[in-house]
Amino acid sequence: MKKILLLSICALAIFSASGQDQAEMMKKWQDYATPGDMQALLAKSEGNWDVDVLVWMAPGQEPMKNKATSEVKMLMGRRYQQAINKGSFGGIPYEGMSVMGYDNAKKIFQSSWVDNMGTGVVMMEGKYDAAKKTLTLTGKGYDPMSGGDLNMKEVFTFVDDTHQVIEMYSIVGGKEFKAMEMKLTKK
């Protein structure tokens, strides 16, 4: 309902503006809505991936090793990327899903993550470094162990067209702790 109201207000504003203002407003809306280079970057990950997962429960501990799969596809006219990951965590079946996009107006990537190991939504945002071929996102997730928010950082490294590395860091007391590393190989 809110979306319909927002679109109606936008349409009313556009049609009530003068001819020159209307053309300028339509151009801004078109620039905002048209997929570009950053959406094409996300689209390069489309396909099925084998994933080797390392999970550290605490600093200094040996990581748990798991295998997973990731199915990545573009949605809504190639504006957003969806990744569905499946595997196991300590013998428990695991499924997670992300939706990521690039906001053309804000010039940032935005990501949401949900999985069957919780009931909250992790929201992150960040920028792409073309020289390093990395996308770094930061955000917050809920930590049931502490009962509060957990600051997080996620780094995607695009090694080549068939290899990626995703690292997840927890930030506690201003210190980063590598909690997960996923090495992806495209099938």
How would you explain this protein's 3D organization?
- There is one protein chain.
- With about 190 residues, this protein is α+β, with helices and mostly antiparallel strands.
- Strands 1-2-3-4-5-6-7-8-9-10 form a ten-stranded antiparallel beta barrel.
- Helix content is about 20%, strand content about 55%.
- A hairpin with a 4-residue loop joins strand 7 and strand 8.
- The mean pLDDT is about 90.
- It has two domains: about 1-35, no CATH class; about 35-185, Calycin beta-barrel core domain (Lipocalin).
- It is built from three helices and ten strands.
- CATH architecture verdict of the largest domain: Beta Barrel
Order of helices and strands: HHHEEEEEEEEEE
What is the fold-level CATH name, i.e. the topology of the largest domain? Lipocalin
The CATH superfamily of the largest domain bears the name Calycin beta-barrel core domain
- Taking Cα atoms only, what radius of gyration do you get, to the nearest Å? 19 Å
The CATH C-level name of the largest domain is: Mainly Beta
Strand order of the largest sheet: 1-2-3-4-5-6-7-8-9-10
As a percent range, the share of strand residues is over 45%
